[in-house]
Amino acid sequence: MEARREGEFLYAGKTGRVSGLKAFRDGLVTVQDASAARAVELALLRPGMRVMDACAAPGGKSFLAAQIMDNTGSILSCDIYSSKLADISEGAERLGVKIVSVERRDASKPDAALNESFDAVLADVPCSGMGVIRKKPEIRFKSFDDIAGLPELQLAIADNLAAYVKKGGVLLYSTCTLIREENEGVVGAFLAAHGEFVKEEEETIWPFERGTDGFYICRLRKKI
Description:
The chain is of the alpha/beta class. The protein folds into 2 domains: 1-31, no CATH class; 32-222, Vaccinia Virus protein VP39 (Rossmann fold, 3-Layer(aba) Sandwich), CATH 3.40.50. Helices cover 29% and strands 27% of the residues. The protein has helices at 22-25, 34-41, 60-68, 82-95, 144-147, 150-162, 184-193, 207-210, and strands at residues 2-6, 9-13, 50-53, 74-79, 100-104, 118-124, 165-175, 197-205, 215-222. Strands 5-4-3-6-7-9-8 form a 7-stranded mixed β-sheet, sandwiched between helices. The protein has a two-stranded antiparallel sheet with strand order 1-2. Strand 1 and strand 2 form a beta hairpin. Helix 6 packs across helix 7 (184-193). The longest helix is centred in the middle third of the chain and has 14 residues, at 82-95. 41% of the residues are buried.
């Protein structure tokens, strides 16, 4: 195996099937692109927080959040597809993560019972995936019709999740695309409709800069 370390990340090559590595089976490591991890880091999580990962599958952001939070507090990891929830539960068990619970939930559908319940909500929304073409080259064959409706869905998800954030809390919006209509366009429309939020920080990560996936990340803070 060829490897190099940068901070908490180990960039490995020639590993073969990662799930066959003893370190993986023993829960010492997990797989995540550095740009996806940056989306969690930018949420400024702390131990003891109550967090929602609204579009969680396959669970990497939830697992990193639990690590940052010292496995204290709680993380509700949700996905619209119940078949994907088992992967999150299995990953949490392998890694020794105790604070993650899973729930089938459509992030665009409101639930008043969750209003102002979370210190932070992670919203890595469905997107065109144009930032991960290096891993999924078939994405380049998507038509404009395939992706034209995505900003509407993304905004609906952000609109809904805004209600779940406590005053003073964070809504972390992210995508693995580089299309402005899905990124800055959605955030602009969201802020125009939600005067209770302010934009604190945003980043666009280009694949050629760091050798990672392309990502857009924006931290939105709910006013006290």
